[in-house]
Amino acid sequence: MKKYRSKKGAEKLSLALIYTVLTIISVIWLLPFLMLIILSFRGEQAGMSADYLFPRQWSFDNYIKLFTETKFLNWYGNTMLVSVVVTVVQTIIVLVTSYALSRLRFKMRKPLMNVMLILGMFPGFLSMTAVYFVLKEINLTQNLFGLILVYSASSAMQYYICKGFFDTIPKSLDEAARIDGASRHTVFFKIILPLAKPIIIYTILTAFIAPWGEYMFSSFIMLGNPDKFTVAVGMKSWLDNSTMASEYFTIFCAAAVVVSIPITALFIWLQRYYVEGVTGGSVKG
Amino acid sequence: MDLEYLKKSPLEKFYFNFKNFFKRLPSSFAAFFKAIPKKLMKIWLAFTGIFVNIGTAAKKGDWKTRTSFAVMGFGFICRKQYLRGILYLAFELLFVLYMVFFGWKYLVKMGSLGEIACLEEWDDALGVFTYKFYDNSLLILLYSLLTIFIMVAFVYVWYQNVKGNFLSQQFEEAHIRLATSKDDIRSYADQNYHKTLLSIPILGLVVFTVLPLFFMVFIAFTNYDKAHMPPHELFSWTGADNFVTVLGGGVSANSKIFAYTFGEVLLWTIVWAFFATFTNYILGMVVAILINKKGVRFKKLWRTILVMTIAIPQFVSLMFMSQLLADQGLINNLLLKWGVIDKAIPFLTDGTAARITVIFVNIWIGIPYSMLICTGILMNIPQDLYESARMDGAGPVTAYMKITLPYMLHVTMPYLITQFIGNLNNFNVIFLLTGGNPSSLDMQFAGKTDLLITWLYKLTVSESQYGIASVIGIFTFAVVAVFSLILYNRSKSVKNEEEFM
Amino acid sequence: MANLSLKHIYKVYPNGTKAVNDFNMEIADKEFIVFVGPSGCGKSTTLRMIAGLEDISAGELKIGDVIVNDMEPKDRDIAMVFQNYALYPHMTVYENLAFSLRLRKLPKDEIHNLVVQAAETLGITEYLSKKPKEMSGGQRQRVALGRAIVREPKVMLLDEPLSNLDAKLRTQMRAEISKLHSRLNTTFIYVTHDQVEAMTMGTRIVVMKDGFVKQIDTPKNLYKYPANKFVAGFIGTPQMNFFEGTLRKDGNDVHIKFANSDAEITVPCSKLDKVRPDYLNGETTVYMGIRAENISIDRVEVGRSKAVVKVRVSHIEELGSETLLYGDLNTDGDGISDSLTKVIIKDVGNGDYKAGDIIEAALDTDRIHLFDRQTEDCILPRIPEYNYLDCTVSGGTLNFSGESIALPPAIKCADGEYELLIPVDAFKVGKDISVNVENCEDICGIKLLSAKLNGKMLYAVVPGDVTEKSLKLDVDLKKITLLKDGKKVVEPMPAVNCLDGIFVKKKTKKQAEENGKFKTLKATEFSLETEGRQFVVSDTLAQKLIAALGVKKAFTSPLKIECGAHSLTFGEDGISARAEGMLDYGKEKFLKCNVGGKYVYLLADRDYEGEVRIVPDLDKVGIVETERNIRII
């Protein structure tokens, strides 16, 4: 009896410890975002060197400035447009490629997968210069369409997770359908796609989020044309030098909040599929 | 012998394997080299097979097939396979037109990359001197590469045309029904569906990834930099000079610094990738285990708190962090005010401190993600494993070391590998957080926290050192490729793709 | 509603492994065929080749009268039931059943009728609106069956459909599938690894192992006459008992001595007269098999029998209606380890025995199976290969069993005593010897005559039923073998001549009359080239070759052409050969000639000398592709 109690005691202690650790972790993870939100409501101009967190004056000035005095709304629109188009194109390309590589058997299947693996090892930025000049030749630099093209052109290489999902759909379903009289095309549309809802949503989600955080390509293609910046490039430009940074810091915070809200909402709504995609796709070997 | 092995303690087993590895090394090397002639033979056979096929088609083909050698698709059209025939013919016409009116001009200049870039000429209409542009090395290189790609494609299509025409002839002779245009169209939704599906993705890949990559690889052998910027200047072939420069063998003083920088950046890239990957993985797993422990309540809440941070765009959190951690940033200011410290902590301005900071910030960014993955797998570990371990007398630590960790490592190996390789090329965290800074005087255009990829970015965007940048890019590829090869070969689970189907 | 024909079907993987080897079978309409064998034996691969889900490496597959080798599965008019049901998870049962009909663009009402009808047949009407995951395994299996029957296919293929069900449900579904078969009147092909399923359901069973067909027969015949040890052990529970032993002929008895045990039994010689004599020398070890139900421990039975062995009982399994006794012929053995003296006895009476007892058991000598130790083939086949007789040769006459036949000039041997081997197919109704007919049985379509020749049993394959009591037979002397001390003195003439060849095509012009005008038409002529000569083949043969080898390989693969002595004739355009002598068998004469270093025999009407030209009759030859060793015809 005594041993039993002591065991229970130890369990309680370890639980208490775990709760403490989890609370600390939660604080560490949430605090920066809380600070971000708080700072976005700071009314006074204190720059970065302020030594306090809570604003002396709570106000919406930053938000008002954000939408009236800066090009933020413009950037937001740019990013949204790019995101939506890239999402559509990339989702289609990824699904189509994954289906072909997972379900169809053709001579070049393995070589193609190997080539894509090798291509993935080259730093993506390496090819940027050439792409830049290709785009320049067809007048697509500093142009959103050019950016869309760059983002979606190599989407095929994102096939891995989606193919992993397709691989888990039993092959006998395809075979049954083919015996039932379906062509491979019909199998794709009538059997595989309806079963691939989680991975479709995952692909949409990742494709949609990516342009919001991408800096490397967009900064290079839009170099020198602030009208065509995406939010990431634009907001980074506010903080590039310290004089601007101190003026725009709180506006930056407000912009960050505005950018984060829709994506976070979308994410929380579709969390289940995201988790499924991440865990499903990354462990399949 | 197997029983002997099983008897050994872990240390002895390790020693045994270690010894055996070296014992077997010569023979495995021998096996490797023995396999080479066989492989070469196979390639050679495939290669000669092409010519044999063409030869047979030329020798045994009837006049329709033979005409198809010059007029592509001719045999198909004669055999009433109109669609195929017309497509082949159209392709041939387009190719000829392309070569005559466009490709040819660039291809002949590929060797010199152009002779005259631009001249000042008198413009009568305006009455001033204006620049008139002639050869643009960049475009010459780009378009001649494109032309070579198209020529390769043409040769391939031509070969398919010869083979196909001959096959149609054989079918006809064997009284087998030939596929009609209608059959062809239908086959693109069935037997040839992969061609339908993959043509556009692959075209995108070739134009926007493969062609540019080849272009940049060629650029690595030119002197394309600030001083040789088309359209005003030409650049030219310089052989392996850029490689020599980066590796420290160049004559200029820069070369030594380049070599030193390359070494430093490469070393840091590997160190970074290692720490970034494993700290995230281990700590993510620990957090996942804590949340999943029996008896812990509000599991969903804890998880959602962490998952929410994934949703916030990385660039927002990274840039915000870089502001918070600046020398005059909020954190330093607060700490100074509270008297915890009396001098600002150089989070991002001291070399070593900055490196530690990026790893820690990366942990902050990455843990939710790895936690998610680990949670999914932890739930899949069969509970009876733990139960039987507990009956055998294993405590929580033993259970973790003997069951959880091996299982996790086994299952998540592919994830770990992709993470490691991703981190070798992790642009965002470094560039948005420190921008590669603090800069260093003894390094060429690179700072203490620069990775190969961010250095590459700087060399291209701010320094216009395209030639050198290409060399760095190629080396980056080599590093990534070597690590991928080693890691993929180590993990067997990657290989058995079919087994999981 | 169609018959199937599988001719020389092979599945060869790129790395050279053969998953299916020379599968030959004619399946009649409405048959229920079961492919059975351990996993990896190629049964599923064969089924999938029939379905069109796997490519056929070589051979000819016909459904109805159409060669379907290169047909897509959807065009073959077949249906398949999969092991894991393969129901479309996102569709309701109704949609699952209607899927194939919708793809065939049937009118809506007709689809509805057919679906409802199929659902009623299988009793799943109430589940029509459910999704597969809301149903139990048995219900899902019914839906899978329903999906297959709904469009009334020519052939139903079932790939281990019951192996995911529990034992009770399996028995129930087994009966239902059988019922379904009799109701639908469709050809069923059913794959399983469970011999009970095979035995209970099939009208004919194909037993396979390692890609080879081991035996094709009805369930009853498989059980009674297994062709090899594998089939014997695979069919029937408990498994057949196998022992090692030797056979020694002694007068009119054969003594069977068991290895590793003192047991010895005696069998009358007449029961083993189909066995090759060299197995009966008392030295060659063979496998003996006897089923548990053919061993009796009944006192009366034991008292009467000459084949009694002592068994040490090690373990008893009481099954209610019967008792299984596990024992060991080696009375010192433990009876547990898997030795070749272990024995299982099925006892239906209520004997009083307990573990450790040593009891006497009688073997039913009519039910003993004997197998060769190397090949594991049955050495007591239903149709023996030869009749084994003792004979003497004196002055050009062959004397055996009181009969004598004059030896033709082709057979030359010294006077003396020999062993005589006459193949069962070497007899013809004639006048040489007279026999008393005992029996004439039909074994898989072959009529085997058993007759007594002066007290000695003689077996002969005859073309039709024999009703006469006594009969006169001719012996085809070119097929006999004479042995002296185990060495061949007279060998039969080779039945098959082999020629190397290749398939070629050639363009020709031929004159044809069209609308009263003569026109030159171009055509392609196919021929087989051998020894530098080309022989035109018929279109059907050409198509077979092309279908079997593919257009690309057909004209490059080396072939072996097999032709019998009767399918070679003399002709002007023939292969050049050198005559090496005549073989005169009295009624027939054959010429032995040399073709490029190989001997070829052919029927000759007169004596030939020097160079001759011979022509093969291409409609009667066999053709084998030598590279992969694949039989085409």
Can you walk through the features of this model?
- The complex is a heterotrimer of chains A (285), B (501) and C (633).
- Helix content of chain A is 75%, strand content 0%.
- By secondary structure, chain A is mostly helical.
- The model of chain A has no long low-confidence stretch (mean pLDDT 84).
- Chain B has two domains: 61-239, no CATH class; 253-495, Orthogonal Bundle (MetI-like fold), CATH 1.10.3720.10.
- Chain B is 71% helix and 2% strand.
- A two-stranded antiparallel sheet of chain B has the order 1-2.
- The longest helix of chain B is centred in the N-terminal third of the chain and has 51 residues, at 10-60.
- Chain C has four domains: 4-232, P-loop containing nucleotide triphosphate hydrolases (Rossmann fold, 3-Layer(aba) Sandwich), CATH 3.40.50.300; 238-372, OB fold (Dihydrolipoamide Acetyltransferase, E2P); 386-490, no CATH class; 497-631, Nucleic acid-binding proteins (OB fold (Dihydrolipoamide Acetyltransferase, E2P)).
- The two termini of chain C are 26 Å apart.
- The mean pLDDT of chain C is 82.
- Classes of the chains: A mainly alpha (285), B mainly alpha (501), C alpha+beta (633).
- Chains in contact: A-B, A-C, B-C.
- At the B-C interface, helix 6 of B face helix 10 of C.
Q: Please, what is the oligomeric state?
A: heterotrimer
Number of domains of chain B: 2
What radius of gyration of chain C results from the CA coordinates?
Answer: 30 Å
Order of adjacent strands in the largest pleated sheet of chain B: 1-2
Question: β content of chain B, as a range?
Answer: under 5%
What is the mean pLDDT of chain C?
A: 82
| Low-confidence residue ranges of chain B | 493-501
Helix percentage range of chain C: 10-25%
Poorly predicted regions of chain C are: none
CATH topology of the largest domain in chain C: Rossmann fold
Strand order of the largest sheet of chain C: 6-7-8-3-9-10
CATH superfamily of the largest domain in chain B: MetI-like
Key features of this structure:
heterotrimer; A: 285 residues; mainly alpha; 14 helices; 0% strand; flat; B: 501 residues; MetI-like fold; 2 domains; two-stranded antiparallel ribbon; 19 helices; 2 strands; 71% helix; globular; disordered C terminus
